[in-house]
Amino acid sequence: MNIKTDYFALFARIAIAMSFLSAVADRFGWWAPVLGSENIVWGNMSNFIAYTGVLVPWVSKQILPVLAWLVTIAEVVFGVLLIIGYQKRIVALLSGVLLLTFAFSMMFFSSLKAPLDYSVFTASACSFLLYKNSK
Prior knowledge:
135 residues
């Protein structure tokens, strides 16, 4: 059997997956011992829940933890599935939608600069290209 590997798509999948998983590791405080607290964004789930409130100001404070955990679970699932290559097309599409939602929320409720600095639009576009080019 001849297996052709698209190394550019593999690189894109791993890059997006590692971004998702790195963000989750930050929320769980796993980066702080390695990088020092000055080099992390959230450091714990409570800080991420508060940031989620900034990005979705219309959501009640009681629902914010649920939403933050749903997003976190989605990022873990998408990250793992992108790495192993399972259901690449649908996972790429869902990743693109999630990232584009983050980007617009950051742009409208934080600053225009934030999604540009963190390359969220770029990651979303990359996910959509993976979707378009996956079989």
